[in-house]
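Tutorial handout. Part one gives the primary structure; part two gives the three-dimensional structure as tokens.
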Amino acid sequence: MRPDTPADHTTEAERLLRTAEQYPEDREPLLLQAAAHLELSGDRARATGLYDGLLADAPDNPYLIKALQAANLWEYGHEAEARALIEGIRVAAPDEAGPWEIIAETLEAHDELDAAHEAFTTAVSRLIAPDDEIPYSTRSLLTGRHRVRRLLALPHDDWDTLADRLHTAAVPLDELHDPNRLWALGSSDPTELRAEIARLRTELGTYRAALSRPFPVAVLHWPTAELSELLTAYPALTVEYPAHDTHLSSIESALRDLSTAGTGNLGIVTGTVPSYEAFAASEATSPEDPNLLPQYATTLAARGRAVPWPPARGADCWCGTGSAYGQCHGANRIQGV
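Part two.
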């Protein structure tokens, strides 16, 4: 069950803190989840302490942590500190969607609509090309920008058209983001109320779908040296991995098939033999059992180890060659899917 009360969130935060001690290699994503639960429990001071501690440890995702800290501080009554963090993120212009979305939504939540619109626009212009594959992680930037533009009564532009095209729910974005919906909630007209209830159900269904998959559907990737070590130790797995090049091609093919089938939030997790052996021991199963491989991938994804697929525009390929994705495993992709 998901936590529903402040006490539930505190309990979940404590569980995540204990897990972070058991898995120090996954400390950062686990502590970020713990901080989120502490915020939901109302313990914003303690959440601030976790964010500060993470930032002091040279984290992998400093801008994401700073964005989360800014959102927390503003709600905690420290607006000036929050604004300073937000400005620092805007100047740094990170190439990840998460920090941009958090600072834009923070500004929006505090009625800074023009600043929120600027942040969303900067992010989509930096991270998305209309003719390229739109990664799952950046689609919400388009949706958020669409929402803010409706609140500002701005006309549709090309980015809004793209947001509309990617939106698959029954109720269009223009209706979901209609500022007049607030008035409808206070209406005594049964027809208006029924229409608004239908919209809210659609919106809730979208949020539930996102929450039901808090981590990516991940495919397992073995680097060359790790795969060689794995097959030397467990030769029965050669059936699963006949050659490294075939393994890499299979990853890309599987992810493309999932994307074509409409599955979003896709990712790749990289395995190591010691980690896999430890996981097999925890499951009381032989590492040679091929059924263990997808379970291992899912566990790594749940611990925050997944890298989003497809890579961002201009980013290196996930396979580790150092070549750009578009010139490596991303070559000949169907555009705009």
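Part three, for discussion. The CA atoms of residues 114 and 152 lie 8 Å apart. Confidence is low (pLDDT under 50) at residues 208-213.
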